[in-house]
Amino acid sequence: MKSEILIIGGGIMGLATAIALKMRGCNVTILSRDFQAAATYAAAGMLAPEAEQVQGAMRELCLRSRCLYPEWISKLEEITGINSGYWACGILVPVYQGQGEQKSHLSGNWLDKQTIHQYQSGLGQDVIGGYWYPEDAQVDNRRLAEVLFAAAQSLGVELKENVTVEGIQQRQGQVIAVQTNHGVICAEHYILATGAWSNELLPLPVRPRKGQMLSVIVPEYLPELPLNRVLFGEEIYIVPRRDKKIIIGATVEDVGFTPNNTPIGIESLLQKAIRLFPELKDYAIAQMWWGYRPATPDELPILGESPLKNLTFATGHHRNGILLAPITSVLIADLITGGKFDPILENFHYSRFQSPNQSSTSTPMFTNSANFNHVTNGNGNNPIENLGKQPFNQNEHINKGKQPAPTLEPIPDSPLVIAGKTFKSRLMTGTGKYRSIEEMQQSVIASGCEIVTVAVRRVQTNAPGHEGLAQALDWDKIWMLPNTAGCKTAEEAIRVARLGREMAKLLGQEDNNFIKLEVIPDAKYLLPDPIGTLQAAEQLVKEGFAVLPYINADPMLAKHLEDVGCATVMPLAAPIGSGQGLKTTANIQIIIENSKIPVVVDAGIGAPSQAAEAMEMGADALLINSAIALAVNSSAMAYAMNLAAIAGRMAYLAGRMPIKDYAIASSPLTGTVN
């Protein structure tokens, strides 16, 4: 099917932007896994740029959006006839004894202790004053979601629920289609508004920040609401609703997509809320829930253009999604329909997360052209001084003394994409078993690899060969793949995986959720445990990891791991570290044939010929450590493995000649002299 504009994501950003575009005459379709699962439903609906003391360009963006709210809401309610619960109630920010009377607030009216307790009765006795923000407001976020959904329907936006976008197809710097669980869908322009799930489709630094919340009911014996304004306290807010419910929130937890409310989370909220407004202790709990805020490293949204010319970003709004819906929809609609670029968008451009040497118009995260790596040390020189020969130059060896042979064009190839992140090299290496850290550094450079796997436990314990590893490699250029080597059970591997994610963060890779999963109880043959691997993979996927499981070459296990959401499967060619080569060829071929995710051949490869053979079979990538680290000349072997991976991939794409049981002459027999 074809739609003029396709919005991926059915939360408040997707719905609000769809309505703005539709009112400008566009044909719009929204794809959503589950409209009810969006963060919109889990919020409290505070419109609090001043109470939250937002600063910088973000403050301007939030204040502009707050100004749009009354008219925006009025239009939506007029279209639908549904009350959104918008309430210009103001927000009170109490200050406790010990915090100091004059907190550093940019604005607001200071109320002393006597005034604030007169203005709002029932506050805790240790509240010694506070700030009053009369222009801040609230909206019933769940009603707002209903209003937006109804308005989109009424205006003719096509709403497709239970549609999961599984991948974004790219060609020559633009999106050509999205792959969904219901087939391929095309459009002229695309908008990514998937919130906390954005990183599942593109390597954006957007992570889920879980927030737990609850509501209580005002007792019937109280004829009126005890609160008529929002209370915004220290790590707590209390939001009264006109239906006599009071919202209490919210925790801020960096736990990935871990679901459910927890006793400690709810207890923490209740303790802080009761301290701020003690009579809540006697109110009945009505409901508890949780949601996932889309957080970026600087907690600012990613808005506007992307590296793909027909894809626009509207994601990463963190805790201000409800507030920023009106301004986001206007800015994005103006940008797409009229080419009107508001200067404020410069502050929220995706390129702020790129390393300084990356272009703002082209980043390796989104590159989809074939690339044949040449090994250099950064200044164009080959770092392998003892290979004996210079790299082969085609024009020096073909038709020597005549016209130069035409340059060979590489066969078009799609990139290696793992969990939405794009890599040019199809060779991964490791850091273990080298004779020195310097030898490891040289070999990583010679290999041309972009992914290096690191044993979390060895780094934590400063095991021999792993001292100073954090400083040994350039982590701006190399993607760390933490692994759970040494773990014997699923539970142990899950715990180490969580540590691995934190280790990647410490190296500056905030958006790195990759984990190479190894569960190996067998000390003699080091064969992975299939049951433990599957159990650990299921849990880690739920927690938002991109799981790359190391497995026996078992096609059924590979399919189960794919079904639970793993990013790759990594079947062994032979026992790890054995150098025996491809001993599981038949099973690996079946895995490659049946897999819709990348297949990485891992363990057992000992020579470049074996590496090339694995790639010729159609493997997507290789992970090679021992064969490089234990070679007499590790750097030279790393370079050879790089060339083997490239040659094997090219051979696979070229398509080998059929194997026959008889000979066929190379030269034709017709036209020969008798």
From TrEMBL:
<dbReference type="InterPro" id="IPR006076">
    <property type="entry name" value="FAD-dep_OxRdtase"/>
</dbReference>
<dbReference type="InterPro" id="IPR036188">
    <property type="entry name" value="FAD/NAD-bd_sf"/>
</dbReference>
<dbReference type="InterPro" id="IPR008867">
    <property type="entry name" value="ThiG"/>
</dbReference>
<comment type="function">
    <text>Catalyzes the rearrangement of 1-deoxy-D-xylulose 5-phosphate (DXP) to produce the thiazole phosphate moiety of thiamine. Sulfur is provided by the thiocarboxylate moiety of the carrier protein ThiS. In vitro, sulfur can be provided by H(2)S.</text>
</comment>
<dbReference type="Pfam" id="PF01266">
    <property type="entry name" value="DAO"/>
</dbReference>
<protein>
    <recommendedName>
        <fullName>Thiazole synthase</fullName>
        <ecNumber>2.8.1.10</ecNumber>
    </recommendedName>
</protein>
<dbReference type="InterPro" id="IPR012727">
    <property type="entry name" value="Gly_oxidase_ThiO"/>
</dbReference>
<feature type="binding site">
    <location>
        <begin position="603"/>
        <end position="604"/>
    </location>
    <ligand>
        <name>1-deoxy-D-xylulose 5-phosphate</name>
    </ligand>
</feature>
<dbReference type="GO" id="GO:0050660">
    <property type="term" value="F:flavin adenine dinucleotide binding"/>
</dbReference>
<dbReference type="GO" id="GO:0005737">
    <property type="term" value="C:cytoplasm"/>
</dbReference>
<feature type="binding site">
    <location>
        <position position="577"/>
    </location>
    <ligand>
        <name>1-deoxy-D-xylulose 5-phosphate</name>
    </ligand>
</feature>
<feature type="domain" description="FAD dependent oxidoreductase">
    <location>
        <begin position="5"/>
        <end position="335"/>
    </location>
</feature>
<dbReference type="GO" id="GO:1990107">
    <property type="term" value="F:thiazole synthase activity"/>
</dbReference>
<dbReference type="Pfam" id="PF05690">
    <property type="entry name" value="ThiG"/>
</dbReference>
<dbReference type="GO" id="GO:0043799">
    <property type="term" value="F:glycine oxidase activity"/>
</dbReference>
<keyword id="KW-0560">Oxidoreductase</keyword>
<feature type="domain" description="Thiazole synthase ThiG">
    <location>
        <begin position="418"/>
        <end position="668"/>
    </location>
</feature>
<feature type="binding site">
    <location>
        <begin position="625"/>
        <end position="626"/>
    </location>
    <ligand>
        <name>1-deoxy-D-xylulose 5-phosphate</name>
    </ligand>
</feature>
<feature type="active site" description="Schiff-base intermediate with DXP">
    <location>
        <position position="516"/>
    </location>
</feature>
<dbReference type="GO" id="GO:0009229">
    <property type="term" value="P:thiamine diphosphate biosynthetic process"/>
</dbReference>
<keyword id="KW-0808">Transferase</keyword>
<keyword id="KW-0963">Cytoplasm</keyword>
<comment type="subunit">
    <text>Homotetramer. Forms heterodimers with either ThiH or ThiS.</text>
</comment>
<dbReference type="InterPro" id="IPR013785">
    <property type="entry name" value="Aldolase_TIM"/>
</dbReference>
<comment type="similarity">
    <text>Belongs to the ThiG family.</text>
</comment>
<keyword id="KW-0704">Schiff base</keyword>
<dbReference type="InterPro" id="IPR033983">
    <property type="entry name" value="Thiazole_synthase_ThiG"/>
</dbReference>
<comment type="pathway">
    <text>Cofactor biosynthesis; thiamine diphosphate biosynthesis.</text>
</comment>
<keyword id="KW-0784">Thiamine biosynthesis</keyword>
